[in-house]
Amino acid sequence: MSQRAVAPNDLEAFWMPFTANRQFKSNPRMFVGAEGMHYLTSDGRKVLDGTAGLWCCNAGHKRPRIVEAIQKQAEELDYAPAFQMGHPKAFELAARLAAMLPKPLDHVFFTNSGSESVDTALKIALAYQRAIGQGTRTRLIGRERGYHGVGFGGISVGGIVANRRTFGTMLTGVDHIRHTHDLERNAFTRGEPEHGEEFADDLIRVIQLHDPSTIAAVIVEPVAGSTGVLVPPKGYLKRLREICDQHGILLIFDEVITGFGRLGTPFATDYFEVVPDLVTTAKGLTSGVVPMGAVFCASAIYEAFMNGPENMIELFHGYTYSAHPLACAAALGTLDTYEEEGLLTRAAELAGYWEDAVHSMRDCPNVIDVRNLGLIGAIELEPIAGEPTKRAFAAFLEAYERNVLIRTTGDIIALSPPLIIEKSDIDVLFDTLRGVLKSIP
User: Fold this and answer.
1) Per its Swiss-Prot or TrEMBL entry, what cofactor is needed (predicted)?
2) I need a surface site. Which of 116, 135, 317, 418 has the fewest CB within 10 A?
3) Which CATH code fits 67-341?
4) Which residues contact 95 (CB under 8 A, 6 or more apart)?
């Protein structure tokens, strides 16, 4: 049998996601190991993880509880179908998760990613409205600058132009309310901005345009992450909840980023004291170790489907890898780690120190805004005229050379470290960034 010879360092075959492929392959940045707060590069350097991977490694890297759980599960049960069959850890995990959310969010549907969680929540919302006799409610409302993954549902309700413009027709029956970013009034705000609660009333405009009887659900990120850390103004989310309640519209919180301790509470619904009808999660559910997502839904939504003959499928939706045994084991090990180390509330303990560190960057060259909440931060840079994103990308490359991993979106540096970060790590992170911003044009 002939074998295809592949050079071990051949980079060409892999089409990398959300990456400048040609730039990367001309000067690769390779991670070969990770532990705690650091990655290990192929040339032997330790790189401080300022972004928890991609907002996901909330418990840090190479955590013993998670590693052990996956190893044990692989030996015990490698795969079990989730269609008409089950395995114990799926039900154990669902019960533990349901206990973490405020009532009535007490049912869990498992997916494999944030993108799948979003599409699942949108489908549940549409199917629910039909189940209760509101079949005219087929319209979905997102928000400008929102990020809800890369499925067609997610990019349709999402509002990041670059993620939409090359893919033709989106889902029909989708509209968007305005974003909450108000640089003129809220620049350099510490925490929640004072101005902007009234932006929620843009939903009333959309409702009046389409008629409330046509709208199934509104989806927003409590804190918009991938678009550059847009913190909601005080009262904004409560006002959205009020408007949705007044018009029979479901409210979906996309907590793929804010879930599992990022704001110093288990979920953003706890932090803002606003309970939506559906919550999408992923990332921190397994601390990024095994792909997994979940959608939490209110009991009334679940019960609306539990009609008809008992042998009939209630929701024609799911994935081959829903509630995968290894993912469930990883999630249970992650929850154990969070509980044992108090990580779901640790961001609250560090929030003041983190906030001071983030805002110490306001006097650096080209900085036009700084934002923070919990253990999330953003440093917005003045774009280079005619070359948007170039300045922030230069900062990303220079930070990597100085052994710090950051995330950039447009001309915004976004920061979201593992929840195990120490004050000394925060000092290193921002001392390095200060040097980076002083060194780039």
Assistant:
1) pyridoxal 5'-phosphate
2) 135
3) 3.40.640.10
4) none
In the 8-state DSSP scheme, what is residue 294? E
> Strand order of the sheet with strand 46-49?
31-35, 38-41, 46-49, 404-405
Q: Return mean pLDDT, the chain.
A: 96
Contact between residue 153 and residue 119 where contact means Cβ atoms under 8 Å apart: yes
Q: What backbone torsions phi and psi does residue 428 show, to the nearest 5 degrees?
A: -65, -45
Measured CA to CA, the distance from residue 16 to residue 334 in angstroms comes to 28
Q: How many angstroms separate the CA atoms of 172 and 179, rounded?
A: 21
Which tens digit of pLDDT belongs to each residue from 49-90?
Answer: 999 999 999 999 999 999 999 999 999 999 999 999 999 999
pLDDT at position 313 over 90: yes
Q: How far apart are CA 251 and CA 126, in angstroms?
A: 12
Q: Is-contact 286 327, C-beta < 8 A? A: yes
Residue 38 has phi, psi (to 5 degrees) of -130, 150
Query: Taking the C-alpha atoms of 27, 414, 287 and 58 in order, what is their torsion angle to the nearest 10 degrees?
Result: 120
- CATH 3.90.1150.10 residue window(s) in the chain: 21-58+344-439
Q: Give CATH 3.40.640.10 domain extents, the chain.
A: 67-341
Residue 7 has what pLDDT? 44
> For 430-440, what is the mean pLDDT?
98
Would you state the pLDDT for residue 9?
72
- Taking only the tens place, the pLDDT of each residue in 137-194 is 999 999 999 999 999 999 999 999 999 999 998 999 999 999 999 999 999 999 999 9
Q: How far apart are the first and last CA of the chain?
A: 56
Contact 22, 14 (CB under 8 A): no
Q: Copy the structure tokens of residue 184.
A: 């003129």
- 114 near 294, Cβ under 8 Å? no
* Nearest of 435, 436, 415 to residue 370 by alpha carbon: 415
- In the CATH hierarchy, which fold is given to the domain comprising 21-58+344-439? Aspartate Aminotransferase, domain 1 (3.90.1150)
Tens of pLDDT along 88-102? 999 999 999 999 999
3-state percent helix, strand, coil for the chain, nearest multiple of 5? 40, 20, 45
